[in-house]
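Write out this protein's structure.
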Amino acid sequence: MRTGAALPIELTTRLAARYAEPQRRYHTLAHVRALQRWLTHWQALAREPRLIDAAIWFHDAVYDPPRRDNEARSAALARVELGALGWAAHDIERVAALVLATEHHQADANDTDAWLFLDLDLSVLAQSPADYAAYSAAIRAEYAWVDDARYRAGRAAVLRSFLDRPAIYRTPELQAAWEAAARANLGAELSDLTGPG
């Protein structure tokens, strides 16, 4: 198979079925499609867009909210599935590494494709307040098994971790386009979580 070729329909159909699992509210096929649309929009910034597209497909392929190894399991699935397609080993490992990078949303400083992928994964943070509110509600629904006090504390810590960064988005073009809106949305949610009542 051609290095980095697009994923075949048989595989994307199986992956789409995973994204339709009942525990998902935000980490669905709509999330995958949104990232793919943004990748198309910003494709000129990508050195290996087909590998980023594969990482988009696999990055939440395994998603069980109570577990802490979803990224590792998604990367393992990517290795199995791409290996079965005959992808080159270095391309498989690149996709797996991109998937693993979503665990902490960190990458090597000079890895522009990794940062582009991670920035695309956070694109929802910079959408309209109404779209952001829908995202926030969907995340809460995915964590319905967590009591309200614990959820508010944990979610607030996540939001602060992004707000405390010098920049949420590391790709200069995306930072220019999205940073201000993302900070406004995150700040508003944080105020709601930590305010009285």
